[in-house]
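Pipeline run #58 for the internal structure catalog. This entry was flagged by the ingest filter as a single-chain record with no existing model, so it goes straight to prediction. Upstream metadata was stripped on purpose; only the residue string is passed forward. Reviewer on rotation: M.T. Logging verbosity set to normal.
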Amino acid sequence: MTDFATPFSAVLFDCDGVLVDSEHITNGVLHAMLHELGWPIGEAECVRLFVGRALKDEWPVILEHTGFRITEEWFGEFRARRNAGIRAGLQPIPGAVEAVRLIATAYGDRIACVSGADRHKVEMQLALTGLDGPFGDRVFSGMEQPRSKPAPDVYLTAAAALGVDPATAVVVEDSIAGVTAGVAARATVLGFAPGGPVHEAPDALLAAGAALTFASMTELPALVGIAAGTP
């Protein structure tokens, strides 16, 4: 760890859409399975309703549109199809691996991956993209909390585990639910908005409470106080 002051006590990263380019895979599987239940939902609407949220908590809207109360068996099929797609085609977000390496050099063990997804998915994705090393065991799943995002529980748990005040930490998020969770935890939230069909527009993230937005992971080290040229 480099011995210099950092402007935040910790950097807390969301996973899907921030570190790994997984949302189009997961959303594609969900979109197909909702069609199989008889809901002709469009891709953009599927993103709006479900990205950044725990699917298990969204059963009422699925029930409303399909008449089907999703079951553990249905979840099991969804996860199996999702995981197969991830193993076949997952890539890191451009620039994310290098950004995490630089930030880990400065912040050491004061970084964490804080996701609304289930732990198996998060850890699998980090391993597939070589991001598991910098985060170590500092991986937190909203599925293991009383409430997932947009509630702040998982960010509060991560901050407590790192021994920092969440009000002095910075959160990196790309969804409205995630930004809402970070703001509710009193953290400074940076909104990642690179464009494209599975990412929110900058204005939407700012309206949810992000302090600012950025479009490329190459910008992130400077935003968390790491000067250019840091090894």
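catalog note: The domain at 11-21+91-223 is CATH 3.40.50.1000 (Rossmann fold).
catalog note: The chain has two domains: 11-21+91-223, 23-89.
status: ready for reviewer M.T.
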